[in-house]
Amino acid sequence: MPLVDRIPRWFPCALFALLAALYLKELGSSSLWLDEAWEANYYAGFVAAPWYNRPVLYMALVTGLVRAFSASEFVLRFAPCAAGLAAVAVTYRLARRMLPRFESLLAAGVLALSPPFLSFAHQLKNYTFDALFAALLVLLWLRYREERSTRRLATYALAAIASFGFSFSSVFVVAAIAAVEAASEGFVPRRLARFAGANSMIALLLAADFLAFHTGGAADRLLHDYFIDAYLPWRTPTRVPQWLLREGKAILVEQSGTTSAIASALVGLAGVVGGGAGRPMLAAFAGAAALNVAASALALYPFGVTRLSIYLGPFVAITLALGIHRLRPAGRVPRGYALVFAAALWLLFAPGARLGAHDLWSGWRREEIRDLVARLGREARPGDALYVNEDAIPAFSFYWRRGGRSFPPDRLVIGARLRDDPERHAGEVARLAREEHTVWTLLTHMPADEVATLLRLMESRYERGASQVIGDARLDQWARGEERFGLRAIQRP
Q1: Do residues 136 and 151 touch, judged by C-beta distance below 8 A?
Q2: Which of 116, 155, 222, 390 is deepest in the core (most CB within 10 A)?
């Protein structure tokens, strides 16, 4: 395939510039959704920060950006987006150590368009830093293996220390690298002395970071209960193989955006078997995943959860690229064979690529609450009740305060989370009808059937006035009694 073997050196830089433009294009366009708004409230200084829930340097970086510029959606999401772009670039550089330019670009592209990676690169979340530091630490370690100088060891050690402030999962990568390095040096103390000394310092600073900021996370049962299915069921040994297969399959398919778990596994297996120069990298990432599984068995850190496994994205992408390189015929081949090979690649990666390209071009539309909160602030009159469902409260609180208003507003009613039995909203609506003449309902992050049930219950007690729907969010005005929306009431027969 001579065409792919003659990719010019400037082409990766041009592609990266295009990717950066597309990544930034829609970054600030959509409203913050539930989880983002939960974080944004403390970056903007509206509530105290639960520091143990996010890496401390990541939180400090976002807080600093907000104070220097503003609490806009673009500024809040900029650091995760920049980390995502950096992770793509580092993954390319890591792949180039073992692959030609075509397969290296393919690895970077698989990561860049991976649906979960792409999504979290456009959210106020720290997970793209996981991928960035996983790839960066392995790259710096491989550079040290080539030239065991003090400078390269110090560079690796400083990156490892910094990684703990941006990524919880980097501890698995650092520990795996230490194990692989020790094994490759035959566990000879004399040969490992400098690397062991550097890792001792890294471990001490990791312990200091954990004790100073993150001990509360280990004691928070909510974090464990939320990811209950992502912990190794070691108490039931017969379930362990099925669990490992399920979680491994989820990571492989979701991180690569491929159509078939079996096809992806076969291509990845070809990459592992023919790893060659990539074996140290494969060993480091496989070791990190194994340590993650062990941590999940101890209920310390889940394994297999899409967002928490983003750090394995570079590993999945490069492993698939290694497999494709091994399967791709070298040199000049018949045109028909080349077309079949290209079609196979398209069938494998097309779903993720199409979804990623669509999102990059048109943006993310989740819970467009921002303009509805602004309208509510303009049009709600003193004495009007504001009914906001529970899952909308973080975003409502952020945008309400960002508009210069105090929170909570007078007559705020927080709707219960009744997804399993929406009819239970009848009690809330009955209480509203007894106590409130005019009500504004602001709803988002609710299942469609729950929204429909709540609106039907409101219609049984009130007349609807103003109504607006944007994306997954809706604002409605309701009134009863002698006056409705400034007009005389229409009496029911």
Answers
A1: no
A2: 116
What's the whole-number average pLDDT of the chain?
Answer: 88
Tokens of 455: 């609106």
Q: Which two tokens stand for residue 254?
A: 């979701």
From the list 152, 114, 28, the residue with the least C-alpha distance to 353 is 114
Backbone phi and psi for residue 463, each to the nearest 5 degrees, phi listed first: -100, 140
477 CB-near residues (< 8 Å, 6+ apart):
379, 438, 439, 440, 464, 465, 466, 467, 485
- CA 367, chain centre distance (Å): 17
CA 323 centroid distance within chain: 26
DSSP annotation of 214: I
Under 8 Å between Cβ of 377 and 476: no
What is the distance, to the nearest Å, from the Cα of residue 307 to the centroid of all Cα atoms in its chain?
Answer: 5
Summarize pLDDT for 434-446 with one digit per residue, the tens: 999 999 999 999 9
Spatial distance between the Cα atoms of 442 and 208, rounded to a whole number of angstroms: 44
> How many H helices and E strands in the chain?
21, 7
Distance (Å, whole) CA 168 – CA 126: 9
User: In which residue ranges of the chain is pLDDT below 70?
Assistant: 1-5, 50-52, 217-223, 274-275, 330-337, 481-493
Each residue of 212-237: pLDDT tens digit?
Answer: 887 776 666 666 777 888 899 988 99
Q: Per-domain residue ranges for the chain? A: 4-362, 370-488
